[in-house]
Amino acid sequence: MLSQLEQKSPVLVEVRIEVPWSRVNEQLEKAYRSVQKTARIRGFRPGKAPRSVIKQLVGKSVQQEVAASLVEESLGAAVDEHSLQLVAVPRLDQPKVVDGEPLRFTAEIEVRPKIEQVNLEGLTAKRPVQTVGDETVEQELQQLRERQAEISTPEPPRPAAEGDVVTLDLEVEVEGQPRPEFGSQDLQTQVGSDDLLPAIAALIPGAAVDEQRDTDFVFPDDHSSEELRGKSALFRVRIKAIQERVLPELDDEFAKDLEVDSLEALRQQIRERRQKYLDDQSERAVRDALFDALVANNPIEVPPSMVEREVQRALAELQRLQSMLGQALPSSDFFGEAAMERAQRSVKLSLLLARLAEQENMDVDEAAIEARLGEIAEQSGKHPAKVRAEYQGEARAQLANQILHQQLVELLLKRATIEDVPAGTETEAEEAKPDTDTGSDTSNADSDAG
Questions:
Q1: CATH number of the domain encompassing residue 98
Q2: What is the pLDDT of residues 322-356, one digit of tens each?
Protein backbone atom coordinates (compact mmCIF):
# COMPACT_ATOMS: atom_id res chain seq x y z
CA MET A 1 0.00 0.00 0.00
CA LEU A 2 1.20 3.49 -0.89
CA SER A 3 -0.06 6.67 0.78
CA GLN A 4 0.75 10.33 0.20
CA LEU A 5 -0.20 13.08 2.63
CA GLU A 6 -0.99 16.69 1.71
CA GLN A 7 -1.63 19.24 4.47
CA LYS A 8 -4.53 21.39 3.29
CA SER A 9 -4.71 23.42 6.52
CA PRO A 10 -3.68 23.00 10.17
CA VAL A 11 -6.87 20.96 10.70
CA LEU A 12 -7.41 19.29 7.31
CA VAL A 13 -5.26 16.78 5.43
CA GLU A 14 -5.74 14.90 2.19
CA VAL A 15 -4.47 11.35 1.95
CA ARG A 16 -4.09 9.66 -1.43
CA ILE A 17 -3.95 5.88 -1.13
CA GLU A 18 -3.15 3.18 -3.64
CA VAL A 19 -3.67 -0.52 -2.92
CA PRO A 20 -1.76 -2.72 -5.43
CA TRP A 21 -3.73 -5.05 -7.69
CA SER A 22 -2.02 -8.07 -6.15
CA ARG A 23 -3.61 -7.25 -2.78
CA VAL A 24 -6.98 -6.49 -4.38
CA ASN A 25 -6.93 -9.74 -6.35
CA GLU A 26 -5.94 -11.71 -3.24
CA GLN A 27 -8.98 -10.38 -1.37
CA LEU A 28 -11.26 -10.98 -4.35
CA GLU A 29 -10.15 -14.60 -4.63
CA LYS A 30 -10.67 -15.10 -0.92
CA ALA A 31 -14.16 -13.61 -1.12
CA TYR A 32 -15.16 -15.69 -4.14
CA ARG A 33 -13.96 -18.89 -2.49
CA SER A 34 -16.03 -18.11 0.57
CA VAL A 35 -19.13 -17.46 -1.53
CA GLN A 36 -18.51 -20.52 -3.67
CA LYS A 37 -18.44 -22.82 -0.62
CA THR A 38 -21.85 -21.73 0.64
CA ALA A 39 -23.71 -20.64 -2.50
CA ARG A 40 -26.85 -22.61 -3.37
CA ILE A 41 -27.43 -22.23 -7.11
CA ARG A 42 -30.07 -24.18 -9.04
CA GLY A 43 -28.51 -26.86 -11.20
CA PHE A 44 -25.35 -27.19 -9.11
CA ARG A 45 -24.56 -29.11 -5.95
CA PRO A 46 -23.62 -26.91 -2.93
CA GLY A 47 -20.06 -25.67 -3.34
CA LYS A 48 -19.73 -26.92 -6.96
CA ALA A 49 -20.93 -23.88 -8.94
CA PRO A 50 -18.24 -22.62 -11.36
CA ARG A 51 -16.44 -19.36 -10.60
CA SER A 52 -17.82 -17.79 -13.78
CA VAL A 53 -21.38 -18.39 -12.59
CA ILE A 54 -20.59 -16.99 -9.14
CA LYS A 55 -19.10 -13.84 -10.69
CA GLN A 56 -22.09 -13.39 -12.94
CA LEU A 57 -24.54 -13.64 -10.04
CA VAL A 58 -22.77 -11.85 -7.16
CA GLY A 59 -19.63 -10.35 -8.70
CA LYS A 60 -20.72 -6.73 -8.22
CA SER A 61 -21.59 -7.14 -4.54
CA VAL A 62 -18.36 -9.08 -3.88
CA GLN A 63 -16.32 -6.28 -5.48
CA GLN A 64 -18.13 -3.67 -3.37
CA GLU A 65 -17.49 -5.61 -0.16
CA VAL A 66 -13.82 -6.12 -1.01
CA ALA A 67 -13.39 -2.43 -1.89
CA ALA A 68 -15.03 -1.33 1.37
CA SER A 69 -12.85 -3.72 3.37
CA LEU A 70 -9.63 -2.57 1.68
CA VAL A 71 -10.56 1.10 2.13
CA GLU A 72 -11.04 0.58 5.87
CA GLU A 73 -7.83 -1.45 6.17
CA SER A 74 -5.61 0.87 4.11
CA LEU A 75 -7.04 4.07 5.56
CA GLY A 76 -6.36 2.79 9.08
CA ALA A 77 -2.80 1.92 8.09
CA ALA A 78 -2.29 5.40 6.57
CA VAL A 79 -3.60 7.08 9.72
CA ASP A 80 -1.10 5.09 11.80
CA GLU A 81 1.75 5.71 9.32
CA HIS A 82 1.30 9.50 9.37
CA SER A 83 0.36 9.66 13.09
CA LEU A 84 -2.92 11.46 12.37
CA GLN A 85 -5.25 12.47 15.22
CA LEU A 86 -8.69 12.15 13.63
CA VAL A 87 -11.57 14.22 14.98
CA ALA A 88 -14.26 13.18 12.47
CA VAL A 89 -15.15 10.43 10.03
CA PRO A 90 -13.00 10.86 6.87
CA ARG A 91 -14.75 12.05 3.72
CA LEU A 92 -14.15 9.94 0.62
CA ASP A 93 -15.78 8.46 -2.47
CA GLN A 94 -16.05 4.68 -2.39
CA PRO A 95 -13.69 3.42 -5.15
CA LYS A 96 -14.61 0.69 -7.63
CA VAL A 97 -12.61 -2.44 -8.33
CA VAL A 98 -11.21 -2.60 -11.88
CA ASP A 99 -9.55 -5.84 -13.00
CA GLY A 100 -5.78 -5.54 -13.17
CA GLU A 101 -5.62 -2.02 -11.69
CA PRO A 102 -4.69 -0.78 -8.19
CA LEU A 103 -7.49 0.43 -5.95
CA ARG A 104 -7.05 4.20 -5.69
CA PHE A 105 -8.94 6.67 -3.53
CA THR A 106 -8.50 10.00 -1.77
CA ALA A 107 -9.68 10.82 1.75
CA GLU A 108 -10.13 14.23 3.38
CA ILE A 109 -9.50 13.99 7.11
CA GLU A 110 -10.10 16.56 9.85
CA VAL A 111 -7.33 16.38 12.45
CA ARG A 112 -6.38 18.07 15.67
CA PRO A 113 -4.07 21.04 15.12
CA LYS A 114 -0.47 20.47 16.13
CA ILE A 115 0.32 22.76 19.05
CA GLU A 116 4.08 22.86 19.46
CA GLN A 117 4.13 24.91 22.67
CA VAL A 118 1.44 26.57 24.77
CA ASN A 119 2.59 30.12 25.47
CA LEU A 120 1.99 31.22 29.06
CA GLU A 121 4.06 34.40 28.86
CA GLY A 122 2.33 37.64 29.81
CA LEU A 123 -0.90 36.12 31.11
CA THR A 124 -2.81 38.68 33.19
CA ALA A 125 -6.20 38.75 34.87
CA LYS A 126 -8.17 40.90 37.29
CA ARG A 127 -9.74 39.47 40.42
CA PRO A 128 -12.94 41.34 41.39
CA VAL A 129 -12.95 41.85 45.15
CA GLN A 130 -16.16 42.46 47.06
CA THR A 131 -16.89 42.46 50.80
CA VAL A 132 -20.26 41.68 52.34
CA GLY A 133 -21.72 44.85 53.84
CA ASP A 134 -23.96 45.24 56.87
CA GLU A 135 -26.89 46.15 54.61
CA THR A 136 -26.66 42.80 52.83
CA VAL A 137 -26.67 40.93 56.13
CA GLU A 138 -29.70 42.88 57.39
CA GLN A 139 -31.56 42.27 54.13
CA GLU A 140 -31.12 38.53 54.51
CA LEU A 141 -32.19 38.72 58.15
CA GLN A 142 -35.36 40.50 57.02
CA GLN A 143 -36.00 37.77 54.42
CA LEU A 144 -35.60 35.16 57.16
CA ARG A 145 -38.10 37.03 59.33
CA GLU A 146 -40.61 37.14 56.47
CA ARG A 147 -40.24 33.40 55.89
CA GLN A 148 -40.91 32.82 59.59
CA ALA A 149 -43.90 35.19 59.67
CA GLU A 150 -47.20 33.98 61.12
CA ILE A 151 -50.56 34.72 59.51
CA SER A 152 -53.36 35.96 61.78
CA THR A 153 -56.56 37.99 61.66
CA PRO A 154 -55.97 41.61 62.80
CA GLU A 155 -57.46 42.56 66.16
CA PRO A 156 -59.31 44.83 66.17
CA PRO A 157 -60.50 44.38 62.56
CA ARG A 158 -59.15 46.92 60.07
CA PRO A 159 -59.10 47.55 56.30
CA ALA A 160 -56.64 45.77 54.04
CA ALA A 161 -53.11 47.23 54.06
CA GLU A 162 -49.83 46.62 52.24
CA GLY A 163 -48.51 43.10 52.87
CA ASP A 164 -51.82 41.63 54.06
CA VAL A 165 -53.09 38.33 52.68
CA VAL A 166 -56.62 38.91 51.39
CA THR A 167 -59.27 36.37 50.37
CA LEU A 168 -61.80 37.71 47.87
CA ASP A 169 -64.41 36.84 45.26
CA LEU A 170 -63.98 38.33 41.80
CA GLU A 171 -66.83 38.88 39.32
CA VAL A 172 -66.32 40.00 35.72
CA GLU A 173 -68.78 41.46 33.23
CA VAL A 174 -67.87 42.08 29.57
CA GLU A 175 -70.07 44.43 27.55
CA GLY A 176 -72.66 44.16 30.34
CA GLN A 177 -72.79 40.37 30.29
CA PRO A 178 -71.61 38.27 33.28
CA ARG A 179 -68.56 36.17 32.43
CA PRO A 180 -68.07 33.74 35.35
CA GLU A 181 -65.24 31.94 33.52
CA PHE A 182 -63.09 35.05 34.03
CA GLY A 183 -63.97 35.40 37.69
CA SER A 184 -62.83 33.49 40.77
CA GLN A 185 -64.07 32.40 44.19
CA ASP A 186 -61.96 32.49 47.37
CA LEU A 187 -59.00 33.99 45.51
CA GLN A 188 -56.02 34.71 47.79
CA THR A 189 -53.58 37.49 47.06
CA GLN A 190 -51.06 39.59 48.94
CA VAL A 191 -51.73 43.31 48.90
CA GLY A 192 -49.01 45.02 46.92
CA SER A 193 -48.09 41.96 44.83
CA ASP A 194 -48.31 41.97 41.04
CA ASP A 195 -50.31 38.76 40.59
CA LEU A 196 -53.54 40.60 39.64
CA LEU A 197 -54.38 43.10 36.93
CA PRO A 198 -53.49 46.61 38.22
CA ALA A 199 -57.13 47.68 37.85
CA ILE A 200 -58.25 44.85 40.15
CA ALA A 201 -55.34 45.19 42.58
CA ALA A 202 -56.16 48.90 43.05
CA LEU A 203 -59.58 48.00 44.52
CA ILE A 204 -58.14 46.10 47.51
CA PRO A 205 -56.09 48.54 49.68
CA GLY A 206 -58.34 50.19 52.25
CA ALA A 207 -61.23 47.75 51.70
CA ALA A 208 -62.82 46.10 54.76
CA VAL A 209 -64.21 42.57 55.18
CA ASP A 210 -67.56 42.17 53.35
CA GLU A 211 -66.97 45.41 51.46
CA GLN A 212 -67.65 45.32 47.73
CA ARG A 213 -65.83 47.50 45.21
CA ASP A 214 -65.93 47.68 41.43
CA THR A 215 -64.23 49.48 38.56
CA ASP A 216 -64.69 49.90 34.82
CA PHE A 217 -61.99 48.66 32.46
CA VAL A 218 -61.36 48.62 28.71
CA PHE A 219 -59.27 45.76 27.38
CA PRO A 220 -56.36 47.00 25.23
CA ASP A 221 -56.42 46.48 21.47
CA ASP A 222 -53.38 44.20 21.68
CA HIS A 223 -54.82 41.94 24.43
CA SER A 224 -53.75 38.30 24.13
CA SER A 225 -57.40 37.23 23.75
CA GLU A 226 -58.81 38.44 20.44
CA GLU A 227 -62.32 38.06 21.86
CA LEU A 228 -61.67 40.74 24.53
CA ARG A 229 -59.73 43.32 22.51
CA GLY A 230 -61.17 46.81 22.85
CA LYS A 231 -64.19 45.66 24.87
CA SER A 232 -65.41 47.32 28.07
CA ALA A 233 -65.58 45.34 31.29
CA LEU A 234 -66.61 45.65 34.91
CA PHE A 235 -64.48 44.13 37.68
CA ARG A 236 -66.18 43.62 41.06
CA VAL A 237 -64.40 42.33 44.18
CA ARG A 238 -65.82 41.41 47.57
CA ILE A 239 -63.40 41.09 50.46
CA LYS A 240 -64.06 37.89 52.44
CA ALA A 241 -61.09 37.80 54.83
CA ILE A 242 -58.06 39.87 55.78
CA GLN A 243 -55.01 38.37 57.46
CA GLU A 244 -51.83 40.12 58.45
CA ARG A 245 -48.30 38.74 58.43
CA VAL A 246 -46.75 39.08 61.91
CA LEU A 247 -42.96 39.08 61.79
CA PRO A 248 -40.99 37.60 64.70
CA GLU A 249 -38.82 39.89 66.81
CA LEU A 250 -35.22 40.08 65.65
CA ASP A 251 -33.53 38.78 68.79
CA ASP A 252 -31.63 35.82 70.18
CA GLU A 253 -34.81 33.75 70.43
CA PHE A 254 -35.35 34.22 66.70
CA ALA A 255 -31.80 32.95 66.07
CA LYS A 256 -32.34 29.95 68.35
CA ASP A 257 -35.46 29.02 66.38
CA LEU A 258 -33.08 28.73 63.42
CA GLU A 259 -30.72 26.55 65.50
CA VAL A 260 -28.11 29.31 65.96
CA ASP A 261 -26.93 30.33 69.44
CA SER A 262 -27.50 34.07 69.18
CA LEU A 263 -28.49 36.88 66.82
CA GLU A 264 -24.88 37.98 66.45
CA ALA A 265 -23.84 34.42 65.64
CA LEU A 266 -26.59 34.32 63.02
CA ARG A 267 -25.33 37.59 61.53
CA GLN A 268 -21.80 36.15 61.39
CA GLN A 269 -23.06 32.95 59.77
CA ILE A 270 -24.86 34.94 57.09
CA ARG A 271 -21.80 37.14 56.51
CA GLU A 272 -19.46 34.14 56.14
CA ARG A 273 -21.80 32.30 53.79
CA ARG A 274 -22.30 35.38 51.63
CA GLN A 275 -18.58 36.10 51.60
CA LYS A 276 -17.81 32.57 50.47
CA TYR A 277 -20.29 33.00 47.63
CA LEU A 278 -18.63 36.27 46.58
CA ASP A 279 -15.15 34.73 46.86
CA ASP A 280 -16.24 31.77 44.72
CA GLN A 281 -17.62 34.17 42.13
CA SER A 282 -14.35 36.07 42.19
CA GLU A 283 -12.29 32.93 41.62
CA ARG A 284 -14.54 31.91 38.74
CA ALA A 285 -14.07 35.35 37.20
CA VAL A 286 -10.28 35.03 37.51
CA ARG A 287 -10.35 31.55 36.00
CA ASP A 288 -12.47 32.67 33.06
CA ALA A 289 -10.28 35.71 32.49
CA LEU A 290 -7.20 33.47 32.45
CA PHE A 291 -8.91 31.13 29.99
CA ASP A 292 -9.65 34.12 27.74
CA ALA A 293 -6.03 35.25 28.01
CA LEU A 294 -4.76 31.74 27.25
CA VAL A 295 -6.89 31.53 24.10
CA ALA A 296 -5.83 35.03 23.01
CA ASN A 297 -2.17 34.17 23.69
CA ASN A 298 -2.28 31.03 21.54
CA PRO A 299 -4.20 31.56 18.29
CA ILE A 300 -5.00 28.18 16.74
CA GLU A 301 -7.35 26.90 14.05
CA VAL A 302 -9.96 24.40 15.22
CA PRO A 303 -11.68 21.58 13.28
CA PRO A 304 -15.22 22.55 12.18
CA SER A 305 -16.60 19.15 13.24
CA MET A 306 -15.38 19.68 16.83
CA VAL A 307 -17.03 23.10 16.89
CA GLU A 308 -20.31 21.69 15.58
CA ARG A 309 -20.28 18.90 18.18
CA GLU A 310 -19.69 21.46 20.92
CA VAL A 311 -22.62 23.56 19.65
CA GLN A 312 -24.88 20.50 19.73
CA ARG A 313 -23.60 19.48 23.19
CA ALA A 314 -24.24 22.95 24.61
CA LEU A 315 -27.72 23.14 23.09
CA ALA A 316 -28.63 19.67 24.37
CA GLU A 317 -27.50 20.66 27.87
CA LEU A 318 -29.49 23.90 27.66
CA GLN A 319 -32.62 22.05 26.54
CA ARG A 320 -32.19 19.54 29.36
CA LEU A 321 -31.99 22.32 31.96
CA GLN A 322 -34.93 24.19 30.43
CA SER A 323 -37.00 21.03 30.47
CA MET A 324 -36.21 20.56 34.18
CA LEU A 325 -37.02 24.19 35.01
CA GLY A 326 -39.96 24.59 32.65
CA GLN A 327 -38.37 27.60 30.98
CA ALA A 328 -38.80 28.88 27.44
CA LEU A 329 -35.98 28.83 24.91
CA PRO A 330 -33.70 31.90 24.84
CA SER A 331 -33.56 34.37 21.96
CA SER A 332 -32.57 33.16 18.51
CA ASP A 333 -29.20 34.91 18.92
CA PHE A 334 -28.13 32.09 21.22
CA PHE A 335 -28.44 29.59 18.39
CA GLY A 336 -26.70 31.65 15.72
CA GLU A 337 -23.34 33.32 15.46
CA ALA A 338 -23.03 33.73 19.23
CA ALA A 339 -23.38 29.96 19.75
CA MET A 340 -20.68 29.33 17.16
CA GLU A 341 -18.31 31.81 18.84
CA ARG A 342 -18.85 30.19 22.23
CA ALA A 343 -18.24 26.74 20.77
CA GLN A 344 -15.06 27.83 18.97
CA ARG A 345 -13.70 29.36 22.15
CA SER A 346 -14.58 26.23 24.11
CA VAL A 347 -12.85 23.90 21.63
CA LYS A 348 -9.74 26.10 21.49
CA LEU A 349 -9.58 26.12 25.26
CA SER A 350 -9.94 22.36 25.60
CA LEU A 351 -7.22 21.72 23.00
CA LEU A 352 -4.83 24.17 24.68
CA LEU A 353 -5.43 22.74 28.15
CA ALA A 354 -4.91 19.19 26.89
CA ARG A 355 -1.62 20.21 25.25
CA LEU A 356 -0.57 22.18 28.35
CA ALA A 357 -1.08 19.08 30.51
CA GLU A 358 1.25 17.15 28.15
CA GLN A 359 3.74 19.99 28.03
CA GLU A 360 3.99 20.19 31.82
CA ASN A 361 3.97 16.38 32.26
CA MET A 362 0.88 16.71 34.45
CA ASP A 363 -0.97 13.59 35.46
CA VAL A 364 -3.38 12.57 38.19
CA ASP A 365 -2.06 9.77 40.37
CA GLU A 366 -4.07 7.38 42.53
CA ALA A 367 -3.15 9.28 45.70
CA ALA A 368 -4.83 12.45 44.37
CA ILE A 369 -7.95 10.52 43.39
CA GLU A 370 -8.13 8.80 46.80
CA ALA A 371 -7.71 12.15 48.54
CA ARG A 372 -10.61 13.61 46.56
CA LEU A 373 -12.76 10.56 47.28
CA GLY A 374 -12.04 11.08 50.97
CA GLU A 375 -13.23 14.69 50.70
CA ILE A 376 -16.40 13.58 48.94
CA ALA A 377 -17.07 10.99 51.65
CA GLU A 378 -16.61 13.58 54.41
CA GLN A 379 -18.83 16.16 52.71
CA SER A 380 -21.60 13.68 51.87
CA GLY A 381 -21.46 11.73 55.13
CA LYS A 382 -21.11 8.46 53.23
CA HIS A 383 -18.74 5.66 54.15
CA PRO A 384 -15.48 5.92 52.11
CA ALA A 385 -15.98 2.38 50.78
CA LYS A 386 -19.41 3.33 49.41
CA VAL A 387 -17.96 6.40 47.72
CA ARG A 388 -15.18 4.33 46.13
CA ALA A 389 -17.79 1.87 44.84
CA GLU A 390 -19.74 4.74 43.27
CA TYR A 391 -16.65 6.13 41.51
CA GLN A 392 -15.68 3.28 39.23
CA GLY A 393 -15.06 3.18 35.50
CA GLU A 394 -16.25 6.32 33.70
CA ALA A 395 -17.14 8.12 36.95
CA ARG A 396 -13.58 7.66 38.22
CA ALA A 397 -12.16 8.89 34.90
CA GLN A 398 -14.37 11.99 35.08
CA LEU A 399 -13.19 12.65 38.61
CA ALA A 400 -9.56 12.37 37.47
CA ASN A 401 -10.33 14.89 34.69
CA GLN A 402 -11.81 17.30 37.22
CA ILE A 403 -8.72 17.03 39.39
CA LEU A 404 -6.45 17.60 36.39
CA HIS A 405 -8.54 20.58 35.34
CA GLN A 406 -8.14 22.12 38.80
CA GLN A 407 -4.40 21.50 38.67
CA LEU A 408 -4.25 23.31 35.32
CA VAL A 409 -6.15 26.26 36.76
CA GLU A 410 -3.71 26.41 39.69
CA LEU A 411 -0.80 26.34 37.22
CA LEU A 412 -2.24 29.29 35.30
CA LEU A 413 -2.77 31.21 38.55
CA LYS A 414 0.88 30.67 39.47
CA ARG A 415 2.20 31.75 36.07
CA ALA A 416 -0.10 34.75 35.56
CA THR A 417 -0.12 38.23 37.03
CA ILE A 418 -3.31 38.70 39.04
CA GLU A 419 -4.51 42.16 40.06
CA ASP A 420 -7.17 42.64 42.75
CA VAL A 421 -9.71 45.30 41.76
CA PRO A 422 -13.05 46.45 43.20
CA ALA A 423 -15.93 44.34 41.84
CA GLY A 424 -17.54 45.89 38.78
CA THR A 425 -14.36 47.52 37.48
CA GLU A 426 -12.56 44.44 36.19
CA THR A 427 -14.26 44.54 32.78
CA GLU A 428 -14.30 48.27 32.11
CA ALA A 429 -11.39 47.99 29.70
CA GLU A 430 -13.04 45.08 27.90
CA GLU A 431 -16.58 46.38 27.31
CA ALA A 432 -16.22 45.92 23.56
CA LYS A 433 -15.22 42.28 23.96
CA PRO A 434 -17.84 39.69 22.83
CA ASP A 435 -19.57 37.84 25.62
CA THR A 436 -18.48 34.24 26.18
CA ASP A 437 -20.22 31.35 27.88
CA THR A 438 -17.70 29.96 30.32
CA GLY A 439 -19.99 27.22 31.52
CA SER A 440 -19.79 25.14 28.37
CA ASP A 441 -16.11 25.98 27.95
CA THR A 442 -15.21 24.64 31.34
CA SER A 443 -17.12 21.40 31.01
CA ASN A 444 -15.55 20.77 27.63
CA ALA A 445 -12.10 21.57 28.98
CA ASP A 446 -12.67 19.15 31.81
CA SER A 447 -13.33 16.31 29.40
CA ASP A 448 -10.47 17.02 27.00
CA ALA A 449 -7.71 18.06 29.40
CA GLY A 450 -7.12 14.45 30.32
A1: 3.30.70.1050
A2: 888 877 666 555 567 888 899 999 999 999 999 99
